[in-house]
Amino acid sequence: MDRRSLLVAAVGAVIGSTARAQQTLKAGGQDAKPWVIHEQSGLSGVAVDLTRAISKQMRVPIEYEPMIFADLIPAVESGKIDLIATNMAITPEREQRVDFSRPYYNALPEALVVQASDATPYRTLAALNGLPVGAQKGSIQLALLQKTGGFSEIKVYGTQKDAWNAVASDQIRATITPGVETHYAARTGDLPQGARLVETYQSASPKPRAALAVRKGNRDLLNRINAALDQLEADGTLKSIFSRYGLDDWAPPK
User: Fold this and answer.
1) How sure is the predictor about 213, in pLDDT bands with cuts at 50, 70 and 90?
2) May I ask which residue range the UniProt record assigns to the signal sequence (predicted)?
3) Which CATH number describes the domain made up of 3-107+208-244?
């Protein structure tokens, strides 16, 4: 190879490397507050801000797409998105399909929502024995209802809002949904009329360990995400993102 060919090859290698470094990644997360908030200026929320912070750390543009929760893992498996950025708990079943990052948050366990006219001080799921209940498709809350059993019926809904609306409209008597989203909705007035958060409910579940996820075997991207999360935790960015949306319970996840 002559000197001119070597120069062209070297320039081509640099250009190829730069193109790979700047290739836009696609992230997806469930369309639920406080993870995704639609504003006139665009998207905000915990997951959106976290994705932006990771993008800045990695120096790679990342587009964020709000999605239905149950569609997230199939989307990353098929390559439609590169990264799941939402309140997704690490479970053995999910670990068979995706690779999780280090945990970034120990989330609240499930919360119980019943009809506003139902003043019963429920404390456990056993108290709902014989009643129709429901939960979101693909959620650990649905798995918990199925494992607990004893209900007259378990209905499955596409979103948490659908489950809350089903309670409010008397289609089911109760639903369990993720604690963070449910408490946030109760605090901001986003629970539908006719539904209430049961403050007396005491979950027997451990706090879910929320993490980001990539396609199985994508170790390069996973390592870069983990490095970004380490830096965001160390410099206080992670804590500030959660505090921005009133989630002051953030602590270094275990």
Assistant:
1) very high
2) none
3) 3.40.190.10
